Amino acid sequence: MKQKKFWQAGAVLLAATALTACGSSKKSSSSKQDLSWSVAGEITTMDPSKATDVVSFTQMVNTMEGLYRSSKNGQTPGLATSATVSKDGLTYTFNLRKSTWSDGSPVTAKDFVYSWRRTVNPKTESEYAYLFSGIKNADSIQNGKKPVSSLGIKAVSKYQLVVTLEKRMAYFKDLMAFPVFFPQQEKAVKKYGDKYGTASKYMAYNGPFVQKGWTGSNLSWKLEKNSKYWDKSSVKLNQISYSVNKTPSTAYNLYESNKLDGFGLDSNLTKQFKGKSAYHSLANGGTYYLELNEKNQNLANANIRKAISLSINRKNLTSILGGNNLPANTYTAKDLTKVNGEDYTSMIDASAKKMATYNPSLAKKYWKKGLAELGKSSLTLNLLTSDTDSAKKTGEALQSMLESNLSGLKLTVTSVPFKTRLARRENGNFQLCGSDWIADFGDPISFLELLTSANASNYGSWKNSEYDRLIKASKATNDQNERMKDMSQAESIMLKDCGVVPVYYEDDAWMIRPNVKGWLCTRADWDFKNAYIK
């Protein structure tokens, strides 16, 4: 999130067993229902087919709606009033409620068909199209072998939708609350063309709120209650005012002056407010990690990658950053999935995890060996980060650690706006990149599929045929134990080779005014449909 990839901002969808939700659902006693909220980064797009970050996905969750919505107990009906599944588990039939777009036109089954076809169409270049794998013909369409019209989705009537799978998908229903599977109004997409999703006015909405005032580059905008929403009686807030605050100190000052109702904390503020009534610790199912671009000759060397990983003192780094972050020795986030009562990450080979621990003496040995293989005595590398306060601190700490442990290394750090970092990353215009991933749903595949050789989100271009085989095998069975075994073996292979370098697990700390009730927090995504101010 696609990637949802941002500090204090993930992915949206979770399996029922992995969902973290917080809040209250009492009815409002206040006549003024205006909320002010801080985010740490810009919106990149409002196009469900092209979004990859949680700031954008959070906007979509509040302004659009699919078959289901995430809830504290898994999923709750959105536009689907009922669903039936065939005995072989390959055909889903959804009956849709009558609802409308913000312009008053009906939302129909055809809007889902159009949206899904648009996303899997190679011409759209959707980075999240891979999530459709398993739906009939999705892979063949993305590979240019079959027409988009052959996708396994059909509108059998105005309000009935049938989806056909090629194989059972253990997490299929979980996907349906994720924005990439939301309907899109064909009329709006064609009317706005290249402008679609680039500003508030170039969109059609069918969710609890409509967005106003986002121009495509500004740092403030609003969500207003959608009078056309089918469940508008449940929506208590009249307005949500968003502002981008890249430094927590700025957000804190706004909070103290009653101009914000919620904002994310940094290390100093976490220490200051932990235990207070307005303080909330929110597990977000995310991992911060380094991507190493293997199109760069130096980083294509496994020994250089291993030296970099072993030079990072993750305990010290998380201490510097503060908050609730913990040192990471796996790519998949902790506590995402349970396997026979144990965390999935416990299945990963212990020797693989050691490659993501601090061992400067071993790092020096790998570094010396890597330089010899490259025929060099020194290297200059660049680390790309976002320009948020936490990202800058992370970059500075990594620069100090790597340069002090790896003789002959000069590491420069480039900090750019979030949207710029995403663009440079997606274009392969980086050497090392500080990234994060927040699970789209509560299954390790949400992380691990990204590193398969053909995945569009494999920005570091790490490739391993055995890894690919194991991930493919995990998706071909519904035996959960077998699936987890395949995925843990694959992750062990990747960690030993340092395909990416895990740094820390992300848990967010927030200050939220006690009179703000009914909000839902799922993996760093905020849903305000049932929120109100008491």
Automatic annotation (TrEMBL):
GO biological process, one term: peptide transport
Gene3D superfamilies per UniProt: Dipeptide-binding Protein, Domain 1, Dipeptide-binding Protein, Domain 3, Periplasmic binding protein-like II
Subcellular location: Cell envelope
Primary location class: other
Residue ranges of domain Solute-binding protein family in the record: 76-457
One Pfam family from the record: SBP_bac_5
Keywords: Peptide transport, Protein transport, Signal, Transport
GO-annotated molecular function: peptide transmembrane transporter activity
Gene Ontology cellular-component annotations: ATP-binding cassette (ABC) transporter complex; outer membrane-bounded periplasmic space
Signal peptide: 1-23
Keyword Calcium (UniProt): no
Superkingdom of the organism of origin: Bacteria
PANTHER family xref list: PERIPLASMIC BINDING COMPONENT OF ABC TRANSPORTER (PTHR30290), PERIPLASMIC OLIGOPEPTIDE-BINDING PROTEIN-RELATED (PTHR30290:SF10)
Similarity field: Belongs to the bacterial solute-binding protein 5 family.
Protein name listed in UniProt: Peptide ABC transporter substrate-binding protein
Organism: Lactobacillus equicursoris
Upper taxonomic lineage: Bacteria, Bacillati, Bacillota, Bacilli, Lactobacillales
